[in-house]
Write a structure and sequence with these properties.
Largest interface: A-B, 29 and 21 residues
Distance between the termini of chain A: 17 Å
CATH architecture of the largest domain in chain B: 2-Layer Sandwich
Strand order of the largest sheet of chain B: 2-1-5-4-3
Radius of gyration of chain B: 43 Å
Structural class of chain A: mainly alpha
Largest sheet of chain B: 5 strands, antiparallel
Radius of gyration of chain A: 24 Å
Distance between the termini of chain B: 75 Å
Number of helices of chain B: 6
Strand content of chain A: under 5%
Number of helices of chain A: 7
Helix content of chain B: 55-70%
Number of strands of chain A: 0
Mean pLDDT of chain A: 86
Number of strands of chain B: 5
Number of domains of chain A: 1
Largest sheet of chain A: none
CATH topology of the largest domain in chain B: Beta-Lactamase
Structural class of chain B: alpha+beta
Mean pLDDT of chain B: 80
Oligomer: heterodimer
Order of helices and strands of chain A: HHHHHHH
Chain lengths: 169, 287
């Protein structure tokens, strides 16, 4: 008899805890994009100061690496990459895809920094790579944030309903 | 604020357009800058080559006075920051600046390291490696070209001359061109591109925002005003036509309210009717 009386309350309490946990996770998820932007900014600062921090490439290293691709080719590739990445993010926004922000973009952008560095034209192209990274990551970040906020609102409504039921019981 | 439909529509569009236009402009500027510098270097190498060819006859005749005059005259040209000829040991023999004649250049400096980085100096150097950019002691940005003066059969075969046959490079002509005019052109191009980009951004984002506002946000706001009432059956407001689907939506909402009101009136009439019937029944005498 006691079990039958307490089990709905326990179940509701569990549901409430699950909803609260879900809201907490969604809050954490909504700021993931910001972390990606911060990580990219942290990578970009030493790159911006590479002239002062990194030693110039020695002729031996240059010889070992071989002829670098032309800066025009890297720039063309950067524009194609930015175009494709923005299209993919816009597609995700259209479909309300819950896929999380991909940190792999930071890796790709570091590769662009490296290519420009080895070609000796990093200073001239730094801002283009930075703008690419900030655009892609901001778009992804906004998408994840707005999607998480919508989910949080849903969960909060469900929580309010559950709490009203619990009060009524 | 960021969760409204207006923000959700405008922010991704603004970010996409602003970001992509910025990326394209920055890359385009960098490409154009590189092309202009390459052109300047090519033109500088042509000047260096012209100087070498102009001085060839004087060199063959070992006419040092004539050679010195040619170097001094060309060196006086506007935009020429330095012009010098040094031998294969690095001693400056002729220069626009008389004070540096006789001094030895540093083989470790950027212009020399292309050939002198190994144990043995290279005989041939790629055209791009003959060029270097630096800021000189007067604070002027200089694009310098080094043109090797090769040993030719005529240099060692003639009776009047004393160059041995072995060394492939007899010396080097070094010319430095002031990059000021190029930097000014680049700065002008940069400002023009910034203004153009800002205009494109304002027009694109502003245009999209204005169109969205006119066709969607204003009608939506009116729809919200029309439908936001405390009691739905009190809703008598109507949305004027001319807003397309949103007007239809408002009409459908209004129809729903009218039907709700009709049902409410019918229900009340039915309730009143049944109450009157009950009262009549209770008033009738029982037989």
């Amino acid at each position: 008899m006691t079990n039958q009386e307490t089990s709905p309350e326990v179940s509701q309490e569990n549901q409430r805890a699950a909803l609260l946990e879900s809201i907490r996770r969604l809050h954490a998820r909504s700021f993931r994009g910001m972390w990606a932007i911060v990580a990219f900014a942290c990578v970009s600062i030493p790159v911006m100061l590479s002239d002062q921090i990194l030693p110039p490439l020695t002729p031996e290293v240059k010889k070992m690496l071989g002829a670098p691709p032309s800066s025009n080719m890297i720039s063309a590739l950067l524009i194609v990459y930015a175009f494709s990445a923005i299209l993919l993010v816009l597609g995700r926004i259209t479909n309300s895809s819950p896929k999380l922000i991909s940190f792999s973009h930071i890796g790709y952008l570091i590769c662009f920094y490296a290519f420009y560095y080895f070609s000796g034209v990093l200073a001239e192209n730094f801002w283009a790579v930075l703008a690419t990274g900030m655009t892609i990551l901001s778009l992804e970040s906004y998408h994840i944030w707005s999607l998480s906020m919508a989910k949080i609102r849903e969960e909060e409504e469900a929580l309010a309903l559950l709490e009203r039921r619990m009060k009524f019981n | 604020m960021f969760q409204s439909i207006a923000a959700r529509s405008i922010i991704p569009v603004s970010l996409t357009v602003t970001g992509f236009v910025a990326i394209c402009c920055l890359s385009l500027y960098s490409i154009m800058k590189q092309d202009m510098i390459d052109d300047a270097a090519k033109s500088g190498r042509n000047i260096a080559n012209t100087v070498v060819l102009s001085t060839r006859y004087a060199m063959l005749n070992n006419d040092r006075q004539n050679l010195g005059n040619i170097i001094a005259n060309i060196g006086q040209q506007q935009g020429v920051e330095h012009l010098r000829i040094f031998d294969h040991n690095g001693f400056i023999n002729f220069s626009r600046n008389q004070s540096e004649i006789g001094h030895q250049v540093n083989k470790k400096m950027e212009g020399c390291s292309g050939c002198h980085s190994g144990k043995k100096a290279a005989d041939q150097l790629a055209a791009e490696k003959q060029t270097r950019r630096f800021v000189n002691e007067r604070g002027v940005e200089v694009l310098a070209m080094s043109q090797p003066i090769y040993n030719e059969p005529s240099c060692s075969n003639t009776t009047c001359h004393y160059h041995p046959r072995e060394p492939k490079v007899l010396g080097m002509l070094d010319i430095g061109i002031d990059q000021g005019p190029l930097q000014n052109s680049l700065a002008l191009m940069r400002y023009r591109m910034i203004i153009f980009t800002l205009m494109v951004l304002v027009l694109t984002v502003g245009g999209v925002a204005a169109l969205l506002n006119r066709s969607f946000f204003i009608p939506l706001k009116k729809l919200v005003e029309v439908t936001s009432v405390a009691e739905p059956y009190d809703c008598v407001k109507k949305l004027e036509s001319g807003y397309g689907e949103i007007t239809l939506l408002a009409r459908n909402f209004h129809c729903l309210i009218v039907r709700l009101n009709n049902t409410r009136v019918t229900l009340e009439q039915y309730r009143n009717g049944s109450k009157e019937a009950d009262d009549t029944e209770t008033r009738l005498p029982l037989n």
